[in-house]
Amino acid sequence: MKTKYIFVTGGVTSSLGKGIISSSLGVLLKSRGYKITIQKFDPYFNIDSGTLNPYEHGECFVTSDGYETDLDLGHYERFLNQITTHKNNVTSGLIYKTVIDNERKGKYLGKTVQVIPHITNEIKRRIKILDKIKYYNIIIVEIGGTVGDIEILPYLETVRQLQWELGYTNSIVIHLTLLPYIFATGEIKTKPTQHSIRNLMENGVQADFLVCRTEQHISNNIRKKLSLFCNISPTHVIESINTKIIYDIPNLLHIQNFDKKVLKTLNILSLKQPNLDPWNNFIKKYKNPQYKITIAIVGKYVALHDSYKSIKESLIHAGTHQKIFVNIKWINSYIIKTKNIIKIFHGISGILIAPGFGNRGIQGKILASEYARINNIPFLGICLGMQVAMIEFAKNVLNKPDADSCEINPYTKDPIIILMKNQQNIKHKGGSMRLGNLKCVLKKNSKIFSIYGQEQIIERHRHRYEFNNVYLKLFTNAGMTISGINPDTALVEVIELDNHIFFIGVQFHPEYKSTIINPHPIFLSFVKESKNYVNQPLLTIK
């Protein structure tokens, strides 16, 4: 069948969850046997997400081919259980840069370069390129931002053109909107949505479905009102009520026959019922845990939990598959001091030091690593978390008080962590780190080898600094095992302590590969050991 396209737009306010709606619809359609992928267009002028502040956009998700993308691609991978690439996330910065580069090369044959047709043609090319690489039955295209924002106008114009070119049975538009609930009067207000739809129509785009984020259930009267004023069938007004967990949303949409209605509108006759058994088994386990543990995530962006979205979800995946409810205690590393550390970590079963950059809060991370080490508390350090563990070990076990990372102190006498050689002459920050899938060979008879059950693994990376191999023998002689090495560069990828219940640091980012169906083995093992951890009398640190 000819590839069909579903365009997802948003209105009224940002951060309503277009990525979750797109992912949930993708799950429903994939469960019916269709080949699905999802693409995200972001209207900002950054080339990619690599230089964005986590407090503004949440985590930077890294694809297997080494592209720094919006966090929504993490949702796509976790929900659909399939990888994405750099072609699944496109920004306005990339679009305009491509057009300008083409103009400089003379590819437009002297034409005046304009938003229409040059920018819109490039957007269309980026949309259609996915189907040229691999055949898909349905491609879901999420348009970032909100209708009414000036920066998304070229995308709405592109949708208008594509619907005319593809034919209206080969593409549909889903508009996600907010229905505010006024507590004082007990009313759901539809006026903001009416204005949003009107704005959409002014740009030549008619929504086929209205998905409404709401705190209260939508009555038939509300549906009829939205239908009348938004030019949408009442049966195509879909409720998306607030829920405690995002993984409930596919079922909530399926109950309303959302997937069936979408297929019918796309003129697809679906005879196969969706197989949601694996998904619902996960939901059942999540809602009926047998154990509960608390794991501390130590980082400097914890005020916005989406800054560590993939880590949070990976812990949920690992816990749920073992019928363990993982309660997360978010700890800002900046507040950790010697005098309050026992109070801060009271009642926790595991400590995870999250990735990050820069020196703010680094001393708190070092204290947290030491606390986990001397008290035999299950510990997982990711990227900077591994580097922090090695700095702490050098300071307090190898008796090197000046040990540090060159990122934190370029003049340290004991540079345990150094800038990689191929990074030393790089001046541009964006897209220049060690990124994407890279090999790692695991040491046999190590903890990490028993976790993976194989000698060679491939994991995703995002870093500039590495362990200084000059200190390798000092560490191994003192009881730290270097249990994972990159076979091509001899870069240290995994460390672990010999006499500890679970103390592992990884230079890569295992959180990027965890999905609902396939939790990552490192998180499975970490959560399991945390459940088995028995609180012992805590030792204070000096």
What is this structure's SSE topology?
Layout: E1 4-10, H1 18-30, E2 36-42, H2 54-57, E3 61-62, E4 68-69, H3 72-80, E5 89-91, H4 92-104, H5 115-133, E6 138-143, H6 153-166, E7 171-178, E8 181-182, E9 187-188, H7 191-202, E10 209-214, H8 220-230, E11 237-241, H9 249-255, H10 258-265, H11 277-287, E12 291-299, H12 309-321, E13 324-332, H13 341-344, E14 350-353, H14 362-374, E15 379-382, H15 384-396, E16 403-405, E17 414-419, E18 434-442, H16 447-452, E19 456-463, E20 465-467, H17 472-477, E21 480-485, E22 492-497, E23 503-506, H18 521-532
Parallel strand pairs: 1-6, 1-7, 2-5, 2-6, 7-10, 10-11, 12-13, 12-14, 14-15, 15-23, 16-17
Antiparallel strand pairs: 3-4, 8-9, 17-20, 18-19, 18-21, 21-22, 22-23
Helix pairs in contact: 1-3, 1-9, 4-5, 5-6, 11-12, 12-18, 14-15
Structure at a glance:
Helices cover 35% and strands 22% of the residues. The chain is an alpha/beta fold and 542 residues long.
Structural class: alpha/beta
The mean pLDDT is 92
Strand content: 15-25%
Number of domains: 2
Task: List its salient traits.
Rossmann fold, nine-stranded mixed β-sheet, 18 helices, alpha/beta, single chain, 35% helix
Account of the 3D structure:
With 542 residues, the chain is an alpha/beta fold. The chain has 2 domains: 4-93 and 130-280, Rossmann fold, CATH 3.40.50.300; 289-532, Class I glutamine amidotransferase (GATase) domain (Rossmann fold, 3-Layer(aba) Sandwich), CATH 3.40.50. It is 35% helix and 22% strand. The chain is built from 18 helices and 23 strands. The strands form 5 sheets. A 9-stranded mixed sheet has the order 13-12-14-15-23-22-21-18-19, sandwiched between helices. The chain has a 7-stranded parallel sheet with strand order 5-2-6-1-7-10-11, with helices on both faces. Helix 4 (92-104) crosses helix 5 (115-133), helix 5 crosses helix 6 and helix 14 (362-374) packs across helix 15 (384-396). It is globular and about 75 Å long. The relative contact order is 0.11. The model has no long low-confidence stretch (mean pLDDT 92).
